[in-house]
Design brief:
- There is one protein chain.
- By secondary structure, this protein is α/β, with parallel strands linked by helices.
- It is 43% helix and 16% strand.
- The strands form two sheets. Strands 2-1-3-4-5-11 form a six-stranded parallel beta sheet, with helices on both faces.
- Strand 6, helix 9 and strand 7 form a beta-alpha-beta unit.
- The chain starts with 5 loop residues before the first helix and ends in a 12-residue tail after the last strand.
- The mean pLDDT is 92.
């Protein structure tokens, strides 16, 4: 069925097209009687404004793009929910793309979103991304770009972050406070800033407490869709190479759950033999046995704040104002569960 046009409404009522347009927009120079007739006929004919024409006129697509490393990931799915919860209120369509931790795919997706004339872009960069020209190109086109979670410090755009270094420090300090003396770290890849900061937080907590840092206790996980298996593999390696380890700080909950699964298979008691702290507070963290002590990373709040910042910048662009990048830091919390010992109070 052909969509109803302003021309059809105008010809049916015997009035001009501009009058129909003004009546639908409640212009004061159109009589109440004419407005009522136009709106009634528009409703009867199921008239819908031509969004493409509106977008051309306003120079807005009312569309934003999101690029994330993984969609099937508890943290990122919560971020998406947070973004959409705010975008819908402002009438924005959201295009969601998955980079699969690939730099090349991420570049293509940025170009695709620009070709689709999105108004702005939200991104958590891929583990492989070390060159940021495709991101600076977005900014150079005066298109708002907001990063979250995995960011690049040298790209001059707004960022929604947590203090990964501080959170990792707190996680490691908790292991120390519960009596752990030999603490390993299953870290993420070498490149992403959040992986670097979590490693640095772990290392600093050891040094501040007079514990020696041993690089052989740091195991690299690429994460992604093999996180669970990496947790199992590194747990087996740890038992073979360092039988004296009594605590582990692990970069993500999925890796931690893989490690717990392997330790249970090998009859290692948690937390009696080895205590474990994860990161992100994935929903399975409280369901596994023993339940996982972890850092709660507020994905939904991050998503909400990311869109709100993007929206501010979209309005600034519309008013031809200069975008001033902001760094917005959200708080994290340590969630204590069964995978770590209770801190004994000294008398």
């Amino acid at each position: 069925m052909t969509p109803t046009t302003l021309r059809q409404i105008a010809e049916t009522l015997g009035i001009s097209i501009p009058t129909v347009s003004k009546a639908l927009k409640d212009y004061p120079d159109v009589s109440k009687k004419t407005k009522a007739m136009v709106k009634e006929l528009a409703k009867t004919l199921n008239y819908k404004p031509n969004s493409f024409a509106v977008n051309l006129r306003t120079k807005e697509s009312k569309t934003i793009g999101i690029i994330i490393p993984e969609i099937v990931h508890h943290f990122f799915s919560n971020v998406i929910k947070g973004i959409i919860s705010q975008a819908e209120k402002k009438g924005y369509l959201v295009i969601i793309l998955q980079s699969n931790e690939s730099y090349e795919l991420e570049k293509k997706q940025i170009n695709l979103l620009i070709d689709k004339r999105v108004d702005g872009i939200l991104i958590s960069i891929a583990n492989e991304t070390a060159d940021f020209k495709h991101l600076t190109d977005v900014i150079d086109q005066n298109k708002p770009l907001v990063m979250f979670d995995k960011i690049a410090k040298i790209v001059k755009c707004s960022k929604i972050i947590i203090d990964d270094r501080k959170a990792a420090y707190i996680a490691t300090q908790h292991l120390i406070d519960t009596g752990c003396k030999r603490i390993a770290h299953f870290r993420g890849p070498l490149l992403p800033q959040n992986s670097i900061d979590r490693f640095l937080g772990y290392k600093k907590a050891l040094i501040d407490n007079g514990l020696s840092y041993d690089p052989s206790l740091v195991y690299i996980c690429q994460c992604g869709d093999k996180s669970f298996e990496e947790g199992k593999i590194n747990a087996a390696r740890l038992l073979k190479e360092h039988k004296d380890v009594d605590g582990i700080f692990i970069n993500t909950d999925m890796v931690a759950i893989g490690a717990i699964t392997e330790f249970r298979k090998r009859k290692v008691k948690i937390p009696e033999d080895i205590s474990i702290v994860g990161f992100s507070n994935w929903f399975m963290s409280s369901a596994i046995t023993p339940s996982l002590t972890t850092i709660d990373q507020p994905g939904f709040k991050i998503g909400k704040r990311a869109f709100k910042q993007l929206y501010k910048e979209l309005k600034a662009v519309k008013k031809e104002k200069i975008i001033i990048p902001k760094i917005i830091e959200l708080k994290t919390n340590l969630i204590k569960r069964e995978s770590t010992k209770t801190i004994s109070l000294k008398t």
